């Protein structure tokens, strides 16, 4: 059995934020969930940020939180890629 993975606090924040995004997708209409999932994936992969660039990661987390709040609204039914 291997030892558990040790992650930094910032790594845990990013992982938890991704999970939060995935949970928010489940609240969207079934016919648009796939597009939301593709959108979230593209947003996470869009930037090539060094794991050591903590300022950029923290900035992107704050920006993502604001974006998620907007997309979590019940009035948002779909997203265009």
From TrEMBL:
Occurrences of domain Complex 1 LYR protein (ranges): 13-69
UniProt xrefs under InterPro entries: Complex1_LYR_dom (IPR008011), Complex1_LYR_SDHAF1_LYRM8 (IPR045295)
GO cellular component: mitochondrial matrix
Places the protein is found: Mitochondrion matrix
Record has Calcium as a keyword: no
GO BP: any one term: mitochondrial respiratory chain complex II assembly
Short name of one Pfam family: Complex1_LYR
Keyword entries, A-Z: Chaperone, Mitochondrion
Family recorded in the similarity comment: Belongs to the complex I LYR family. SDHAF1 subfamily.
Name of the featured protein: 12501_t:CDS:1
